[in-house]
# Entry
Amino acid sequence: MHASPSVTRLWKMEVKVLYFASAREEIGLREEQVTLDSDKDVTLATLRRLLCEKYPHAEATIGSITLARNLEYSSDDVALENGDEVALIPPISGG
# Structure
C-alpha cells in the first residue's frame, strides 16, 4: 500500500486596493488589483504584509495606516474575500 501524497490546494483571490493621501503619494498609484495566492484564510494582515514587501519604501506608512474593507474600517484579523475592496486611509490631522 502506498501513502497518497498530500495535496495542497492554492487558490487565487483578487482584491482592489485604493490608496489615499500619503499612501497614494508614496506608492504612486490611486488603485490597483492585487492577486493573493493562498492555501488558507487571507486576512487584512496578509494583504498588509504583501504590500510592505511590494513597496518597501512605503513600509512605515503601510504598517501604520488604517485599512477599510468594503467601506468599513476593519482590524487586521478580518478575512478577505475575492472581489473585496480595501482602502488604505492615513490618519487625518487638522487643527
